[in-house]
Specification:
- This protein has 20 helices and two strands.
- With 475 residues, it is mostly helical.
- Strands 1-2 form a two-stranded antiparallel sheet.
- Helix 1 (10-23) packs across helix 12, helix 5 packs parallel to helix 12 (193-230) and helix 18 runs antiparallel to helix 19 (431-448).
- The chain starts with 9 loop residues before the first helix and ends in an 11-residue tail after the last helix.
Length: 475
């Protein structure tokens, strides 16, 4: 990792994304120029007769531009900076992935840069992508909305500022007739095409300078959101803590020793009377007692109202009692109606439950029986003996998932994470299989993500305890 993962405040995460863009700004601009500029040239050629609409088209196509910077940043975060060849190979796939949703019903999304990594990097489609975005938006959706609002204002102000700052450089033939425009509002005859082309070019310049930072800021929010809800930073934090504790413990011990040596006992000098010492201390200005005199008006007599003049409030008690029973009756009626309308929630549906369609790919791993060896445990032992620890645990993990979704019909979907799979297996009711799968998942996550091999004893235990076998003994 080339960035420090830890839970951050939203705008601190935005600053992290912008810092990632600043770090590789030259490379991102080179990739931007090689992929975005050709598209702009095509747009300008096709719309050369109506240059007034070019800024709108350039603005509408923004979701396509964002994919190349995101592709670079997502790999640069892990220390790999793709070059021109790799980017050009991925360019068509990046632009045509979710092409229509990005330019149609998702175009006006106010969390576009925050949701783009979930849509592009996690390989989800359709309803699964929408559910994933909604899950992440529960933590960072408000920040993504604020981010889009802020960058839209920055881009608009920068565009107007650039046009205003360079207006004096335009020839007189390219400047509009402002008086005629205000009096007749005849845009076609009062604003020359050269001015419209200049405005479109200024807009492209501003988009080039601002949009990569908008993408980086959204990616920073995405990383922060996944760090907060999935604990990406926990493993790194434990490693840093382990390296610090050894040196810090020695430093703390030395500091405490020196601090204890510098302490001098505070006591009265020998022969002094403690009472006199106390009186001397109390004479200090710090112990001066401050008094404030104030006046308060006290009437000469107290007014006692006549009992006959006291208002009778018995009717309020009756009204309150009536309202109380009306409220209780209304709650009982509402509860009965709710239970009747939702009685299906309290009826066991085990017998009529529709069979779950088993997914073929989970988290990018093929779990079909055809993709696995006949004897999974033997193949895992062979891979472990060959030194391929990740492949060994991958065989056990894929074989377990294949068994659970096809034989036990555990409702695992293709968009579930390792933690989601553990939750679904625990709910299935098979305790022995659930305990084994939980231990196997921990070992798999350790090898696949933390790149820390498990012990040989643990691997042998996982192979020996393999519970997914037929009654006849076949794996």
């Amino acid at each position: 990792m080339t960035v420090t993962l830890r839970p951050r405040q939203p705008w601190e995460a935005v600053d992290l994304g912008c810092a990632m863009v600043r770090r590789d700004f030259g490379r991102i601009m080179a990739l931007w120029a090689s992929t975005v500029f050709p598209l702009w040239i095509v747009v300008c050629v096709l719309m050369r007769s109506v240059p007034v609409w070019i800024p709108l088209v350039v603005w509408w196509l923004k979701p396509l531009y964002d994919r190349v910077p995101l592709f670079f940043l997502s790999r640069a975060a892990f220390g790999v900076r793709p070059g021109f060849v790799e980017t050009w190979k991925e360019w068509p796939r990046l632009w045509f992935m979710n092409f229509l949703p990005a330019l149609l019903w998702r175009r006006l999304s106010f969390i576009r840069s925050f949701a783009l990594p979930a849509q592009m990097l996690e390989g989800l489609r359709g309803a699964a992508a929408n559910r994933r975005v909604k899950t992440l938006a529960m933590d960072g959706g408000g920040s993504g909305f604020s981010l889009s609002y802020a960058f839209s204002k920055i881009e608009f102000v920068a565009w107007i500022g650039l046009m205003w700052g360079t207006y004096g450089l335009l020839p007189e033939s390219a400047t509009p007739d402002w008086d005629g425009l205000m009096s007749a509002f005849d845009v076609e005859n009062t604003i020359p095409d050269a001015f419209l082309w200049w405005g479109a070019i200024c807009h492209m310049v501003v988009v080039t300078l601002v949009e990569p930072f908008y993408v980086g800021a959204g990616f920073g929010l995405y990383l922060n959101c996944r760090t907060r809800i999935e604990g990406w930073d926990v493993e790194l934090a434990f490693r840093r803590m382990a390296t610090r504790l050894t040196s810090a413990a020695a430093a703390i011990a030395v500091s405490l020793f020196l601090f204890a040596g510098m302490q001098t006992p505070l006591h009265a000098a020998e022969g002094d009377d403690p009472a006199k010492v106390i009186e001397k201390v109390k004479e200090s200005p710090d112990f001066e007692v401050h008094k404030v005199n104030s006046k308060r008006w006290v009437p000469d007599f107290e007014f006692e109202p006549d009992e006959k003049e006291k208002p009778r409030l018995d009717f309020l008690d009756a009204i309150g009692e009536i309202l109380f029973w009306v409220l209780i009756t209304g709650l009982v009626v509402w509860l009965v109606i709710y239970l009747v309308n939702n009685r299906h929630l309290f009826i066991s549906r085990g017998a009529s439950k529709a069979p779950v369609k088993a997914p073929k790919v989970i988290m990018g791993m093929n779990i079909t029986r055809e993709s696995l060896p006949d004897d999974i445990v033997a193949a895992a032992r062979a891979a472990w003996a060959a030194g391929d620890f990740k492949e060994a645990l991958s065989l056990l993990y894929r074989g377990s998932l294949s068994w659970l979704v096809t034989r036990r019909q555990v409702p695992i979907t293709d968009s579930d994470t390792e933690e989601d799979c553990v939750v679904q297996v625990l709910r299935s009711g098979e305790k022995a299989e659930a305990d084994y799968f939980k231990q196997l998942t921990g070992a798999w996550v350790q090898v696949a993500y933390a790149v820390l091999p498990v012990s040989e004893a643990e691997m042998n235990a996982l192979c020996d305890r393999w519970p997914f076998v037929e009654k006849g003994g076949a794996a």
